[in-house]
Amino acid sequence: MKLILLGAPGAGKGTQAEIISKKLNIPTISTGNILRSAVRNGTPVGLKAKAYMDAGALVPDEVIIGVIGERLQEADAQNGYILDGVPRTIAQAEALENAGIQFDAVVSIEVPDAEIEQRMTGRRTCPACGATYHIVANPPKQEGICDLCGEALGQRKDDQPETVKSRLVTYHEQTEPLKGFYAQRGLLKVVDVRGSVEEVNAAIMKVLGE
Ligand code: AP5
């Protein structure tokens, strides 16, 4: 299964990717997590990406296309994967298409902007493994500690309300047109469910026929 998760920042792509990854036994490839790790480690990609990420803008396509091209060569990506946060522009989608990759489905998780702005204040993330929690909707077993790796949880720098607003504008302008791109190819599945993490997941598994 090769799957793309589309959705606004905070729509729940990372949360759902983690669950689907366990259920289907395929890795999640999140450009956001790859870039945050590159920023933390001060790599050349991280140095290029940091200012864009802090401002809530997209990192240039050529950087992302390089990052994702390398990641898809790795051994664990040979039997399928979930792309979380990529593609995010038509140019990125065309680059994947030109690389000959055929996707099985593109799931767009729909959440209204007002709900997203509220959700972001409660998000906590693991700086080590990238796992995502919410203090009310999806809390860790032990407050402030990652269930998966035991690291102390933190808040993302780009979850400040003003940056969230810019990220939403960027999403509507640059990423949302991908819905039309994939609808034309018969791949788009829209999941528009106001519900818990589990309810949204059940709706996704249903559209995937799993
Ligand atoms: P990235 O990390 O991809 O951020 P994003 O798309 O903005 O998505 P998020 O990680 O913020 O949200 P999510 O949809 O994964 O939601 P989550 O599951 O956490 O990118 C960050 C930056 O990197 C970008 O701004 C850009 O600069 C750069 N970048 C990355 N990829 C790029 C690319 N391809 N091209 C260019 N630049 C790129 O959920 C949010 C919260 O809600 C959590 O707290 C969660 O617990 C909670 N929640 C989830 N589901 C529910 C529910 N059903 N009910 C209640 N709460 C819920």
Could you characterize the architecture of this molecule?
The protein is α/β, with parallel strands linked by helices and 210 residues long. Helix content is 47%, strand content 13%. The protein is built from 9 helices and 7 strands. It has helices at 13-24, 31-41, 44-55, 61-72, 90-98, 113-121, 161-175, 177-184, 197-207, and strands at 2-7, 28-30, 81-84, 105-109, 123-125, 132-134, 188-191. The chain has a 5-stranded parallel sheet with strand order 2-3-1-4-7, with helices on both faces. A hairpin with a 6-residue loop joins strand 5 (123-125) and strand 6 (132-134). Helix 6 (113-121) crosses helix 7. It is globular. It starts with a strand and ends with a helix. The model has no long low-confidence stretch (mean pLDDT 95). The protein binds BIS(adenosine)-5'-pentaphosphate (AP5). BIS(adenosine)-5'-pentaphosphate is lined by residues 7, 9-15, 31-32, 35, 52-53, 56-59, 64, 85-86, 88, 92, 119, 122-123, 132-134, 137-138, 158, 167, 196-197, 200.
Quick structural overview:
The chain is α/β, with parallel strands linked by helices and 210 residues long. 47% of the residues lie in helices and 13% in strands. The relative contact order is 0.19.
How does the SSE layout of this entry go?
Layout: E1 2-7, H1 13-24, E2 28-30, H2 31-41, H3 44-55, H4 61-72, E3 81-84, H5 90-98, E4 105-109, H6 113-121, E5 123-125, E6 132-134, H7 161-175, H8 177-184, E7 188-191, H9 197-207
Parallel strand pairs: 1-3, 1-4, 2-3, 4-7
Antiparallel strand pairs: 5-6
Helix pairs in contact: 1-9, 2-3, 4-5, 6-7
The structure holds BIS(adenosine)-5'-pentaphosphate.
Residues 7, 9-15, 31-32, 35, 52-53, 56-59, 64, 85-86, 88, 92, 119, 122-123, 132-134, 137-138, 158, 167, 196-197, 200 line the site of BIS(adenosine)-5'-pentaphosphate (AP5).
